[in-house]
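User: My advisor, Dr. K., asked me to get a structural model of this assembly before our group meeting. I'm new to this, so sorry if the format is off. These are the inputs:
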Amino acid sequence: MEHLQGHVGKVAVTVDLVVLTVRDEALCALVVRRGIEPFRGAWALPGGFVLEDEGLEEAAARELAEETGLRPGSVHVEQLATYGSPGRDPRARVVTVAYLALAPDLPVPAAGSDAADAQWCPVDDLLAGDGLAFDHAEILRDGVERARSKLEYSPLGAAFCAEEFTVAELRRVYEIVWGARLDPRNFHRKVTKTEAFLEPTGATTTRDGGRPAQLFRRGSAEHLHPPLLRRTT
Amino acid sequence: MEHLQGHVGKVAVTVDLVVLTVRDEALCALVVRRGIEPFRGAWALPGGFVLEDEGLEEAAARELAEETGLRPGSVHVEQLATYGSPGRDPRARVVTVAYLALAPDLPVPAAGSDAADAQWCPVDDLLAGDGLAFDHAEILRDGVERARSKLEYSPLGAAFCAEEFTVAELRRVYEIVWGARLDPRNFHRKVTKTEAFLEPTGATTTRDGGRPAQLFRRGSAEHLHPPLLRRTT
DNA sequence: ATTATTAGCGTCAGAATGACGATAAGGCGT
DNA sequence: ACGCCTTATCGTCATTCTGACGCTAATAAT
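Assistant: The format is fine. Below is the predicted structure of the whole assembly, which you can bring to the meeting.
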């Protein structure tokens, strides 16, 4: 950190977004089709350059809005990690700061912007093949793993749900993100007994069929104590 | 991610290191005295520019070696977070990728390099005052919080210990990093009963006084199941 | 009304944890 | 050699948390 003269290479800095949602019984990520080389025609994570005088978080929020047109309040965004291998972009040295966003099932990506077409795609499909541009498969993998951990230690599973949701809807989120079945009764006990995890709205719904279920909002808790761990194996 | 032309500002990228160790009953961080403006004379986290054709992790490892002269094997290094507020460096736009390193109590920083003098300083002192350059107080705070969490969910407390250590030495690490007292008997039960947390060496030592204690090495576990949580409050 | 379906409560056994007693095995002073 | 101090390590017991699973409640469809 001693000299700022030009003998050190300046590099381009981008933000890339791992935007996850739960749709059609699958954990899905937002991907855009690349219109130019390299990786023309391949899927890529949405993202773009950090502008001058723009903070990283700010850039991520801007890209997210451009790409999805969602109201900022309803989406959880956090920094994921930074990727800067010299060869990750064949054109030039590019360091990218990846952000993880957890969103409820949104209408449809509002596209409209640069990216030809943006769409939700199951992460299992994206990670199974080799179709993602650059090192985006690695970034996506890290994002998915982070999301899985978040469900254990934080109440952020609710970020995948609508503003108001039932315990069963929240449980489906857990089951789909973790890829494991959970006992409905034990899950119900855990989330309702954990302080500040859920906040009852007083209303009920029958949209899941059967007996009416209470509707909840996200509680004020930041962390889960104790956590809700997957697999005791 | 569509055009790489020059209409986007290129920025300088640095790595900064939060190197933590446990010394003299306190959690300490490695800091260097700044020799030039801005913040001349203030303490700063060690760090430096990422060279061309150098990966981020690689740059962090290089800086760590330059600053401490330690054998790479004995130190745990992981990416912490990236900081890039437009105003964080008054001279120019600088994005820094912070790394967290957990080290055993090393002889003394080998200084020798650029940084005038490097030394260990208790994090409580560093965070109490306002003496850290740039946004390094925020970075350090994040690093300390990450370290505290790591102790809960991973066996990395051992990264603060020598190659071979006793249960009591490991417990002291927890107590100092968390700033809380732990019951020696319950701690002993937890760490010895958790699969692959510790690997017995067969040897014993009396360096802590009293009855000889078994020596252990870090086990192969990556995570703790179930975790070792602080405060049940 | 009957049935299907989901919500939500209750029970019980096993695991994990916190509090803490008791014993083991060294060093040390006398 | 002997007792004492210190720390290591094991054990007990009550409490809490979890997994497995039975049972009743409340609605929609028939």
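One thing worth pointing out at the meeting: Chain A touches chain B through 46 residues (CB under 8 Å).

User: Perfect, thanks a lot.
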